[in-house]
Amino acid sequence: MIGRLGRVVADLRGRPQTPRDFRIVAFLGHGSADRVLVRGRVVDHVPPTEAETGEDAWSAVCRTVARFSADALPGAQLTVSVGTARAEAVSDRFGYFEAELDVDLRAVDPVPTSEWVPGRVELAEPYRGIEAGQGTDVQIRVAGAGARFAVISDVDDTILLTGAQRLSTMLQQTFTGSHLTRMPFAGAAELYRAFADHAGAGHANPVFYVSSSPWPLHDFLTAFLDHRDFPHGPLLLRNLRGDLLDGRRISHKVAHISELLRVHADLPFVLVGDSGQRDPEIYAQIVRDHPGRVLAVYIREVRLDPGDGRVEAVADAWNEGVPFVLVGDSVAAAEHAAGIGLIAPDAVESVRRA
């Protein structure tokens, strides 16, 4: 508290103090063979503590609060590099940065053999007494040549039991749980692995997670997905300041999904969401705005009032030639997906067993 007060006083005097715990946090990136996107944040903040089995709720609360209390470091000049490509970025007033790079991964020596390509984010110029060159590595998901399609999935109440329609329940779970205690929907991990595995030999279809959760929860959600054995994939989260597309302020999900379709122009997509909020309407807009790019839409039924008519209004007006499927559980989604060739037929049984 005293250290933070000192930094505030120094800022007011126009003499920002040197950050004590300078960090560049790189989020998982994504891209194609000729274009990649990297995002992250520059903060003065110690890394959160690791969750432990059997810890009390207070430890989880302190960890969550710490994620949201990081001191943003605006105006940091950064260099983002992937292979031989370079791009400059500057952290905004919330500490966030993003860079889009034109790359040619085929020209990298050696040519990447993994579907995860390494990159680097570094401080390009000295910053408040921190020497240039400090940085962090970043991993970027690039679809392999054998990928047949990609999956874009919501997180809260689609794969992660959240109770987002009940604010008190959602807040309690968010603040008092950890990636070790939070639960997925039964069979969801097996379904997503089936989507990912149904690609060319030695390849995997990429899975992207687009959530209404804010960026400070990136490390928690990544740990949850890995712990529960979901396919490892980039998370695209919500900016508390809002999202822009072509100068228009729009839904962060529309912005992120439109970005994914633009960057991965050679891939069709499967969209997975839930009925609790606006996924049906958003996905309907995406299908209309990007004809021919969506193979199927799956909506998990989680409404407190299934008779509210919201999803049915979308379904009744649906004439897009793309399957729009409201499902009660992961098995129903798996059965339909197997029927149209999106997963292997024998994968349905593994989802059912789970």
Can you offer a commentary on this structure?
- The protein has helices at residues 2-12, 57-68, 167-176, 188-197, 218-227, 252-263, 279-289, 310-316, 330-339, 347-353; strands at 22-26, 29-31, 35-44, 71-72, 77-82, 85-90, 96-102, 116-123, 135-142, 150-153, 207-214, 235-238, 243-245, 248-250, 269-274, 294-300, 324-327.
- The chain has 354 residues and is α/β, with parallel strands linked by helices.
- The protein folds into two domains: 2-141, Immunoglobulin-like, CATH 2.60.40.10; 150-353, Rossmann fold.
- A hairpin with a 2-residue loop joins strand 5 (77-82) and strand 6 (85-90).
Output mean pLDDT: 87
**CATH-defined fold name of the largest domain:** Rossmann fold
The biggest sheet amounts to:
9 strands, mixed
* CATH homology superfamily of the largest domain: HAD superfamily/HAD-like
Gyration radius, to the nearest Å?
Answer: 21 Å
> What string gives the helices and strands in order?
HEEEHEEEEEEEHHEHEEEHEHEHEHH
Q: Which structural class is indicated by helix and strand composition?
A: alpha/beta
Indicate the percent of residues in helices: 25-40%
| Global geometry | globular
Would you count the extended β strands for me?
Answer: 17
Q: How many structural units, i.e. domains?
A: 2
Tally of individual helices: 10
Proportion of residues in extended strands: 25-35%
